[in-house]
Amino acid sequence: MDTSSHTLPSFSSSSTTLGGSLPLTSSPQLTSSSVSLTLSPVSFPPSPTSLSPATAESAHSSSPVSDFAASHCLEGQSTQNLGQVNTSDQDDLTCLSWLHQRGDLLSLQPLAKITPLPQQQTCTPGQLPSPPPAPVSSKPPYSFSSLIFMALEDSPQKRLPVKDIYEWIVSNFPYYRTATGGWRNSVRHNLSLSKSFRRIQRDKSQSVGKGSLWCVCPEYRPVLLEVLRKTHTYHSTNSNLINKPAL
DNA sequence: TTAACTATAAACACCG
DNA sequence: ACGGTGTTTATAGTTA
């Protein structure tokens, strides 16, 4: 089985969340020149989730995500890597390196700042105001790849163990607080299959708990960011047409 | 209709 | 033995 076809954070709008059943109700917002993400406070009345801290903080240009977006540079990685995709990747049918060559990633329209969820404060204490709690009945519009991406970007070290990724998602997307455990399997599945994420073997001397640390592959960062941008654009465009509850 | 992609479920192996 | 983690396979749904 060719797993490569499953590994990319595709930004084709064909995903279940992005272009599929359109279960969404939240409205992620991407901002301007920093290509950062912000949440729309009112676009989706039944907005259950909000674009996480990543998006929220980006409004302040202070979150890891926004920092990344602004700098287009990964921790320990120079920007040159962003445009670099090795030959093997380019040969890959699923290679999305062309995205890196696009010049419109910095030309997103500015959007309204959002009000972050209260849970976000648990992740980034002291940085965000407390918005009213969002309903938990609707599924967030983000693919698991996006969720993982946001979680990793929001971590100080840009890397997290699976357990912390779970916690970040639950903290920022209340839907998953009550969702059945299958989504965790999906998270692990995504981490394992997606080229966007890389496993970092923990230093045994520092190892606390099980598992490895995961980080975003720098060359796929723009791709993941584009996924978020497209998600945002899609839902912004259709917010007045689509208001379908999650499954 | 087909390909591509994502979500979900399940099975299995490994490790602490 | 158990639970968490990581990998792999299979299947279904959706869009282009």
Automatic annotation (TrEMBL):
Keyword presence, DNA-binding: yes
Chief localisation class: nucleus
Keyword Metal-binding set for record: no
Pfam families in UniProt: Forkhead (PF00250)
DNA-binding region per UniProt: 139-226
Entry superkingdom: Eukaryota
Annotated stretches, region: Disordered: 1-63, 118-138
The entry's keywords: DNA-binding, Nucleus, Transcription, Transcription regulation
Fork-head domain ranges (all copies): 139-226
Low complexity biased stretches: 1-42
SMART domains per the UniProt record, alphabetical: FH
UniProt subcellular location: Nucleus
PANTHER family per record: FORKHEAD BOX PROTEIN N2 (PTHR13962:SF26), FORKHEAD BOX PROTEIN N3-LIKE PROTEIN-RELATED (PTHR13962)
Name by which UniProt lists this protein: Fork-head domain-containing protein
Native source organism of the sequence: Ilyodon furcidens (goldbreast splitfin)
